[in-house]
Amino acid sequence: MKRIILLLLTLFSFTLSYSQNLYPEKYKDCSLVSFCLDCGETKAKPQNSIIDELLNKFDKKSLSKITGNIEVQILINENGKPCLLSSFNQTNISSKKLGLQNAINSTSNWEPAISQNKKTNSSVSLIFEFENGNLSAKRKVFDFKNQSNAKSVGAPDIKGTDKEKLSKDWTVFTQQNSELPWDMTRAVANDLDNNIWIGTDNGIVKINNGKWEHFNSKNTLISSPPYNKNETVSVRDLEIDKNNNKWFVADWDVYRYDNKNWTKYDSINSPINWARKIFVDHSNNVWFTSWNGVAKFDGKNWSVINKHNSNLPTDKTLGVYVDKKDRIWIGTFEGNVIIENGVTKSLNEKNSPLSKAYISKIYEDKKGNLWFDLYNDKSDDAGIYVLDLQQKWTRINHPNRKMFSENTINDFYLDEENQLLWITLNGVGVLSYDTNSKKWETYTNENSNVPSIHCERITKDKDGLIWIATYAGVIKLNK
User: Fold this and answer.
1) Which residues contact 316 (CB under 8 A, 6 or more apart)?
2) Is the Cβ–Cβ distance between 27 and 217 less than 8 Å?
3) Where is the signal peptide (predicted)?
4) Is residue 351 part of a domain?
5) Within this chain, do residues 112 and 187 fall inside the same structural domain, yes or no?
6) Rounded to whole angstroms, how far apart are CA atoms 459 and 188?
7) In the prediction, which pLDDT does 144 show?
8) Per-residue model confidence as pLDDT tens digits over 176-186
9) Closest among 269, 227, 223 to 250, alpha carbons compared
10) Rg (Cα) of the chain, in Å, rounded?
11) 155 part of a folded domain
12) What whole-number distance in Å separates Cα of residue 216 and Cα of residue 225?
């Protein structure tokens, strides 16, 4: 499987200094002082097959085991010399062990970018995909036009429920019909005062009784992206703690808003490095999954659970949850563990779904049953499972067997009051499951006014209405 595919992303044109990186793994051997992102009337491109060269240069033992994706930012100087500047590794093998930097830096010279008839320094971004010893690559092609907004709509991978059989409809908030600052949204939460908070790819909004209040790089500590100082970095996750503090993962740093002041937590004043998800437990501890284990903040002090001090299978963590018995459940990309009374136990029993897929999210219902979202993009065992008080597993099966095996669950919300399970499914839209009647409804942008097939976080307000962040606006369930 050797191919190069162009992947269209919507980003701004910008000039980067040497210290500015697109990805968290940073490399210091590149000598370019300045460069532009995928610029030039003629783009930089490899003269030879970069895949063939890399397959010969990567560590052979690692190459036989590696699965997943690595995003790389490669600098191509005016002479065509490639140099790895930054990377984002989402595989089971470290970049160092694979020999990523040496492999890329020792590949043949590229044809440099040409701007105004002159060779110029430029940055190229690629995504490497590894599977069964094979390598494929996607190149990000940056579109610098039409940048007043950004959204992603898409076509659903799976057909939704017949329109006339759907029982619900939605109100859609976009930049065009509301004060939403950006249509690309990833996070939504309801605070203790019944205010709705929305995290977008360009700022945050708070909705209080129909009044919209904006938070961005101008009036908070949240930074702006390097390519546009007038905008705000993407808010990737959002949670409210039991003191009504708002917690945000913006870009890959963490921010807390106590309704008066903002505090930033990064690798300088906390153990956080490349934060991913936020979880608030019943004791009001705030947890963060990351590529460096799980970080915990108890209101005063920080602590870390990682491979070295708690025997995690890997520090690349996906989900974390603390149940009513104070057991800590952690999902990693190499297996799941439970920590009870300081003792770590691997969850690898053959008859358990936890031996086949990784914990992304857990919810404990009022009866004490545990609901799991399990992730594994290489297995049909991904999906929603329930562990009851008798330690019996039940899988929530969809009539379409491909629904969860081919599309990733982004979030779920169990509305116990209405006996409805809400699921956002990447590449499809929104699913509802009546836990009483066992009836499914699938909402896509073809059979409903759900605006995008990419839907993310779910919350419920005090009026009982479901809110969902999507890549083309925010939706609210109509009564």
Assistant:
1) 90, 291, 332, 333, 334
2) no
3) 1-19
4) yes
5) no
6) 6
7) 47
8) 899 999 999 99
9) 223
10) 23
11) no
12) 11
Residue 458 has which token pair? 């779910």
Domain CATH for 365: 2.130.10.10
Beta bridge partners of 247: 239, 256
Helices (H) and strands (E) in the chain, counts: 6, 40
* Whole-number Cα distances in Å, 471 to 363, 416, 452, 474: 25, 27, 6, 8
Among the three residues 82, 112, 143, which one is the final residue of a domain in this structure? 143
Say yes or no: 128 and 222 in one domain.
no
Place of tokens 């898409």: 154
Residue 156 lies in a domain: no
Residue 129 belongs to domain spanning? 4-143
Residue 137 is encoded by which pair of tokens? 């690559």
pLDDT of residue 322: 98
pTM over 0.85: no
Q: What is the predicted pLDDT for the residue at 230?
A: 84
Distance CA 21, CA 28 (A): 11
Please name the residue that has the structure tokens 């990186």: 21
Q: Which two tokens stand for residue 254?
A: 């963490």
In this structure, are 308 and 384 located in the same domain? Answer: yes
CA distance 72 to 87: 4
Same domain, 138 and 169: no
Residues in the chain where the model's pLDDT stays below 70: 1-21, 32-33, 141-148, 227
* 151 in any annotated domain: no
Boundary-marking domain end, from 143, 174, 196: 143
54-110 confidence digits (pLDDT tens): 999 999 999 989 998 898 999 999 999 999 988 888 899 999 999 999 999 999 999
Same domain for 18 and 130, yes or no, is: yes
CB-CB contact of 442 with 161 (8 Å): yes
Structural domains counted in the chain: 2
401 & 352 share domain:
yes
With contact defined as beta carbons under 8 Å apart, do 270 and 259 qualify? no
Whether residues 135 and 167 share a domain: the answer is: no
pLDDT the model gives residue 107: 93
Instruction: State the Cα–Cα distance between residues 60 and 50, nearest whole angstrom.
Output: 16
Question: Distance between terminal CA atoms of the chain?
Answer: 50
Q: For residue 225, give the 3-state DSSP assignment.
A: coil
The set of residues, in sequence order, having a beta carbon less than 8 Å from that of 465 and lying 6+ positions away, is: 476, 477, 478, 479
- How much of the chain is in helix, strand and coil states, percent to nearest 5? 10, 45, 45
Q: Where are the alpha helices (DSSP H) in 335-464?
A: 402-405
* In 182-313, alpha helices (H): 307-310
Residues 206 and 268 reside in one and the same domain: yes
The Cα–Cα gap between 153 and 451 comes to 6
